[in-house]
Amino acid sequence: MHIFISSPLSGLQIIREYLLKHEKDLGISFVSMEAFLSSPNTPRDECLEHLRKSDCVILLVGPNYGSIDPISNNSFTEVEYAEAISLKIPVFPFVMSNSVDKWPPQDTDPEMRKRHASFYAKIKQNHTIGTFLDGKELVEKILPSIEKYKERLSKPYAPFVDYKEYFFSFVGDDKLFRHDYEFVGREQEINKINEFLSSGKKVLTLVGRGGVGKSKILYEVAKKHDGAQTEWNRFIFIKENVIFDNEVLKRIPSGRSVLVLEDAHRYDYLLNVLAVFRNSDLFERIKLIISLRPRGSDIVRMNLNISIDPSFVEEMPELQDLSEQNVTKLVELFIKNNPPLVAFITSITRDCTLATVIGSRLIAEGKINNPGNIKSSADFNRLVLDRLLDEFKAVLSHGGQMDDVLR
Fold first, then answer.
1. Is domain 2-154 annotated with CATH 3.55.50.30?
2. Class for the domain spanning 160-315
3. So what's the pLDDT on residue 388?
4. Which terminal CB of the chain, N or C, has fewer other CB atoms within 10 Å?
5. Do 160-315 and 2-154 have the same topology in CATH?
């Protein structure tokens, strides 16, 4: 494995030398400018050429911003970082500090210090950063990171996951946006899905705007049926961005399964997914649940009409807002013994379950001050969304999409 070391020399030269000295101990091959041979290329082009051939990048943030590239007017390190990101080369950042949040740039020039801090903020937004104080500590931390990455690469490609893995990032008390809170309302929708599972229908569509609760319903249904003594007790979710071709078709598990495809309105391979019903074996043992937003209903319906007899399709009515009573119950999961505040949150989040749940939790944790001063539901929703995006920077930077936040 070839790993490119990206960093300024200034303030980090000793660290770089230590890494190169111990590359045999790590069992990897570092690519660094110290080893570059004489070349007709400019230093910038030579660095980028080597970077493009590397498997991943170790990015070191030290006290100084580094030498400036005359073409971009950014540091060479920032140029290398931008190139790695554009080529989707994995970047492992480490900061020379005992705390990710307490790193101070030490550039003497105020403008360089400002740009250095801005670059660091960008890295911090897009990655989980490791810390180190000397070369020995850095070597000890690089190896586990690289090994974990290599292990992930060695795993067989899995286009499908169970509900636990699919919703992993949305479960747990430490998650602001989560699906494992108490399920409130939606009895009719749950009953409709259960009826579909016990019927001869093959495809069910679940339509609703962003934030109304489609994913929560799918989470609850999959959890309830997982391993249960029922005919359809295995839900497998199609991973986002999977190119659904014949090879993926072969990877559908044996036995009866319910395939789940979220956000079908923006999935380019829906017709390929529907091809499962042209296979006699799969037709008998597969059901498909599709969730989508209203704007995609026409195109999804057209694809369904092309691929499958309409008598095998169940179209659920578009998801509507929860009743005021159920919204109040949601708010009361987080805010106790404060009826006026509960009534206020209920009134301004009635049309967005996501805002109800996250907003109530933020207020309960004291992260939204003086909620009574909020004038409109739009202002409240914007405040909640801003906080939610902050919470999910790490998730979004590892392959997710902004739309995932409101699924």
1. no
2. alpha beta
3. 64
4. N
5. yes
